[in-house]
């Protein structure tokens, strides 16, 4: 059984959803420090004028504030983001197919907790991609001390014998702790993604997965790694 443990991101790119799809259990690890100007509350879409950052304005009241403690400044961002998405993708082949789903998420929701906002988008997009992975918050589990030990304990609590992680974690993970508990560590490879049809000139690979969904629709999974293993 494979577990992935990762902080929630706002409308993340396709690689994030490949990680979800490659796991049996995906743990939202939002009991760690919120980092400013990071993927937790922002992402990019492609427009006629180039790349646009969509950023959720949040309150950061203390330096060690956790992601799960972070709330939005107000809900004005919802209409602004939806207007930007609508303008950028109204001519995309499959925008109309999914328009009502995302319009509901943006305009008919008043949630102010960043983690819950992110999870709502993650769950909706996972459903569109027919991803069956169980998604649970780390708040449902018991957290211990120690950067790597926490991850080991979370894996054990969900019965995982394989931990899949992004390659950047190789710089700080203590693999010996996983070995001690007979948990195999695997690394995600983000290279070699195929080019798909995008609006506007030039191909931008690292944009929100909304770009892939609106441009390729049900064929989006053909441009992801986890569905072709």
Question: What's the layout of helices and strands?
Answer:
Elements: E1 2-6, H1 14-21, E2 25-28, E3 42-47, E4 50-55, E5 58-59, E6 71-72, H2 76-89, H3 95-107, H4 114-128, E7 134-137, H5 147-157, E8 162-166, H6 175-180, E9 184-188, H7 209-216
Parallel strand pairs: 1-2, 1-8, 2-7, 8-9
Antiparallel strand pairs: 3-4, 5-6
Helix content percent band: 25-40%
Which spans of ≥5 residues are poorly predicted at pLDDT below 50?
A: none
Mean of residue pLDDT? Answer: 96
How many beta-strand segments?
A: 9
* Shape designation: globular
Number of helices: 7
Rg calculated over all Cα atoms: 18 Å
Major β-sheet strand ordering: 7-2-1-8-9
Structural class by secondary-structure content: alpha/beta
Order of helices and strands: EHEEEEEHHHEHEHEH
Explain this structure.
There is one protein chain. The chain is α/β, with parallel strands linked by helices and 229 residues long. The protein contains 7 helices and 9 strands, in the order βαβββββαααβαβαβα. It has helices at 14-21, 76-89, 95-107, 114-128, 147-157, 175-180, 209-216; strands at residues 2-6, 25-28, 42-47, 50-55, 58-59, 71-72, 134-137, 162-166, 184-188. The strands form 3 sheets. It has a 5-stranded parallel sheet with strand order 7-2-1-8-9. A two-stranded antiparallel ribbon has the order 3-4. A hairpin with a 2-residue loop joins strand 3 (42-47) and strand 4. Helix 2 (76-89) runs antiparallel to helix 3 (95-107). The chain is globular.
